[in-house]
Amino acid sequence: MELSKKEAKRDVVILSSFATLGTAIVVVAFTFAFLAIERAYGDWPNFVWGIISVIFACTFAVFYILGFRILDKRRGKEEKSLP
After folding, report:
1. How far apart are the C-alpha atoms of 22 and 58, rounded to whole Å?
2. Cα Rg for the chain, rounded, in angstroms?
3. Structural domain includes residue 82
4. What is the C-alpha separation between 32 and 47, in angstroms, rounded?
5. pTM (2 decimals)?
6. Do the Cβ atoms of 18 and 66 come closer than 8 Å?
7. How many structural domains is the chain composed of?
8. Predicted local confidence at residue 79, as pLDDT
9. Which domain, by its residues, includes 58?
10. Please, what sign has the CA dihedral across residues 21, 22, 28, 29?
11. pLDDT at 4
């Protein structure tokens, strides 16, 4: 079953929102943890912050992929319910 443009746009909005919200939650949680660690142990070198940025980018990708899986499952249920 092919998607109309309206459904495709809606799916992109859902995916982006899901990925952004999930990543934002992880970023906030990690930021507080990193700041607590930094306060306890002192400044970190710049490469550590680079690694942390890569982790956040990967988190966004993971949430985007999870969003695709959720949408695929939902579409599968909708197709099965069609007469």
Report:
1. 12
2. 18
3. no
4. 19
5. 0.58
6. yes
7. 1
8. 60
9. 15-76
10. positive
11. 75
